[in-house]
Design goal:
Order of helices and strands: HHHEHEHEHEEHEHHEHEHEHEHEHEEHE
Largest sheet: 4 strands, parallel
Low-confidence stretches: 1-133
Helix content: 25-40%
Strand content: 5-15%
Mean pLDDT: 80
Number of domains: 1
Strand order of the largest sheet: 1-13-10-11
Distance between the termini: 22 Å
Shape: globular
Structural class: alpha/beta
Length: 475
């Protein structure tokens, strides 16, 4: 199939939603959450300012001490429920493709609607919400509906590694600080083969409850690919008492942490990467798509900002001066001067960018240069959709780009309205068939976050755009 003319090229697009139907939600409108959705004040999810670029994330104000991790019996009982939910999610996630259907029970119900919205609900709407559709899954979408990145990371890890048998368990996990989005994105490279260590969220004082429970279910034991490590700890984060061998990575600025992770990657993989991605340290939303590619490819993520090429980044590039470099983001995030500095080291350098975070993610999804890039310009792919103001979710969702339907990370800038550029992209890669739908290509989209992040209406629109369409007349 030609990438220039998809099979659905002749299908007319429906009217796009009004541009002013919704505006991106401000940080003040979006509630903050601790483990398992407990309200708490927290810093903004947006990336650091230019003055903060390259510096460690500011320390949060003191928070109440978390309760001790539950006993073994309580944890196992809770995790049985969690594992069942996400096994169902994984099964439903393949329902649009060629995978076999499962006779397992339906997904868990979504939370009850707010009282003020109940009057506007029809009986049909109420019934579908009670069943968990479309809040949890539709024919072409599956939601990992956590209220915070720790819960989303735990859910994704269990979806990628159901862990009902030893063969389904990861050898190790990667624990990242809840305040270090840059370290988390760089750590996504450890999800690539042969390591395959999913990212989980930790903190300095204690493991969040969903992380502790996911660890109990995943039960990593280490192997030769991890050099015996059961966990990689990025920075000064809490680890379980019985975690086995923990390989620690010292954290500092975004650039120094990423360089340390890249060095660990080289030791574990036993060689240099095929490519290097450089993301902007001061623009988290432009950096987010790098996590999915790192998990899929094994290419490390380094950081630069504006005109500056930080010393740790330059040192890593000098160690791999024959490796091509791909800069992610527009010149407003990483300037042409920084690109010239990279080229001066000896690396071949290219830019992949869009004018805003939504367009930037689409540009990366479409990009291809030899064996670098997703090159997703036709139907038959998986996708991951997250909010552009939650960079930790990019790392949390990375295992979905390295398993199952393997697909790029796309971004939405609103809880309620699909961005027009993203709608056009989904239309461009919408699958279609002429005579036999069972021999067609299919798309599937993972939706990351609860309805405060991406609501049911937007999920339903994504489902419609991903739906297989009949092309031409006749039966």
């Amino acid at each position: 199939m030609s990438a220039d003319r998809p099979i659905n090229a002749d299908v007319p697009a429906t009217d796009a939603p009004a541009a002013d139907a919704d505006k991106p939600k401000s940080e003040g409108d979006k509630p903050k959450f601790q483990a398992w959705g407990k309200p708490a004040s927290s810093p903004s999810k947006a990336g650091p300012t230019k003055e903060q670029a390259g510096k460690p994330a500011p320390t949060k104000s003191p928070r109440p001490k978390r309760q001790p991790i539950p006993g073994a019996i309580k944890a196992i009982a809770a995790l049985v429920v969690v594992a069942i939910v996400f096994i169902v999610a994984a099964v439903l996630g393949g329902s649009g493709g060629s995978k076999n259907d499962s006779g397992s029970a339906g997904p868990a119900p979504v939370p009850a609607p707010a009282a003020e919205n109940e009057a506007a609900q029809t009986p049909a709407t109420q019934t579908t919400e009670e069943l968990g559709y479309p809040g949890f899954a539709t024919g072409n979408t599956t939601r990992v509906g956590g209220s915070d990145p720790a819960t989303n990371a735990a859910g994704v890890a269990l979806a990628a590694f159901p862990s009902t048998t030893p063969a389904q368990r990861p050898a190790a996990v990667t624990l990242v600080d809840e305040n270090d989005w840059a370290g988390a994105i760089a750590a996504a490279v450890l999800m690539s083969a042969p390591i395959r260590a999913p990212v989980l969220i930790s903190a300095a004082d204690a493991l969040p409850d969903p992380t502790a429970e996911a660890l109990a279910a995943l039960d990593p034991r280490g192997d030769s690919s991890t050099k015996g490590a059961t966990a990689f700890a990025i920075g000064d984060v809490a680890t379980p008492d019985d975690s086995g061998k923990v390989t620690a990575v010292k954290a500092g600025s975004a650039a120094s942490t990423a360089a340390a992770i890249a060095a660990l990657r080289d030791r574990l993989f036993g060689g240099a990467p095929g490519h290097i991605v450089i993301a902007p340290a001061g623009h988290a939303d432009f950096a987010m798509p790098a996590a999915a590619w790192a998990a899929r490819s094994g290419d490390p993520v380094l950081f630069a900002e504006g005109d500056e090429l930080p010393r740790p980044t330059a040192a890593t590039l000098k160690r791999h001066e024959d490796v091509p470099v791909y800069v992610l983001g527009p010149s407003s995030a990483i300037s042409s001067k920084a690109i010239r500095a990279i080229a001066g080291i000896g690396n071949e350098v290219h830019r992949v960018s869009g004018e805003d975070p939504v367009a930037n993610a689409i540009a990366f999804a479409r990009y291809a240069d030899g064996d670098f890039g997703w090159n997703v310009n036709d139907p038959g792919h998986g996708f991951v959709l997250a909010r552009d103001d939650s960079p930790l979710d990019a790392a949390a969702a990375a295992p979905l780009s390295a398993s199952g339907t393997w697909g790029p990370l796309l971004l939405t800038d609103s809880a309620t309205t699909l961005p027009p550029a993203l709608r056009e992209y989904f239309l461009d890669v919408k699958p279609g068939y002429t005579t036999n739908p069972t021999r067609a290509f299919y798309n599937h989209v993972w939706v990351i976050g609860d309805q405060e992040a991406i609501d049911v209406q937007q999920q339903a629109e994504v489902d419609e755009l991903a739906e297989l369409a009949k092309i031409g007349g006749g039966e």
